[in-house]
Amino acid sequence: MVVRQLTRVGPRSLIRPRQPPKTKKYRELCDPFDHFDDDEIAARYRFDKATIQYLEQLLGPDLERPTKRGRAIPVRIQILTALRYYATGTFQSAIGDILCISKMSVSRIVTAVSYALARKMDQFITFPTGERAREVMHKFGEKGGIGGIVGAIDCTHVRIVKPKGNQLFYINRKGYHSMNIQAVCDADRCFTSVLAKFPGSAHDSRIFSQSALCADFEAGRKSGILLGDAGYACKSYLLTPYDNARSRIEGRFNKRHARQRVLIEQAFGCLKRRFHILHGEIRLPSPTKVCAVVVACCVLHNMAIRRNLPDFYDVIDDRQPPEEAARPDQGHGGRSGPVIRDEIARLLMLA
């Protein structure tokens, strides 16, 4: 009788007694507001408590869950998670260990917060017009002497992991995979235009020629002059420096031009110093998500300037050698870019 019972039940039931069902244990979320003062929060998350609370109100409708089902993560913890990821660029598992959430939750939070901030782009990144454009021109004039400047334009590469498809399109001239980000800034190093969708192989001049900003200038919907490096074509609304200045007039123009155009390089340096994720390699599987992260960081950069938070423009030098020079503009019914550049150069010598 005993042998039959052992055969029917099996020997394992005698060796390993049945365990009671396991209950899932949840870790208590860690709120850094309870452990750090305002300066420590700013050092770790790049923003003070007041700005983070402002972000809670701004992004709350996009990040809040309709119910508490599944232990929904509070909006503040979601924002702090994304800010820590932007500020450090470290592994998502390390971010989760700090705030006591899983790696998968960190991934979902970074995506949700990045897209929520990117949707606020039109609210924080706007090209100057009207009275604001005149203020920007005045500030640029104080820095270099060339009048009528509404912005400095340039592109910067953000390193990414090798994408799954069309890998060759993302290899830039330096030999690594990247996204080429175009931006325009004003005299306060605040971004007024950001275009984040082109792969690293795209030339700066090509990105600008296919942008809505270029179409607006061509159609006369935007006024003023942009300053760009030798990688752009010299146009009536986009002035570039002289190649190999041959006279004192051209040399003086190049110095004034560089003094004003350097603001966009400083803006990129400040952006990448504040958000180290852009200075290293963004380890996200999709280039679309990378672009959302870049735009989100640009929105936060402008927000920091508006709220008079400390900047980081003097720490990282983002200057890059210009790409192959583009062909000069031949004009569109009016004066061409080189003609206007010559007139401004002569006026600078008389000033």
TrEMBL record:
Domain DDE Tnp4: from-to ranges: 153-302
The keyword Nucleus belongs to this UniProt entry's keyword annotation: yes
Presence of the UniProt keyword Nuclease in the record: yes
Any GO molecular function: nuclease activity
Any Pfam family hit: DDE_Tnp_4
UniProt keyword terms in alphabetical order: Cytoplasm, Hydrolase, Metal-binding, Nuclease, Nucleus
Family per record: Belongs to the HARBI1 family.
Protein name: Putative nuclease HARBI1
Gene source species: Plectus sambesii
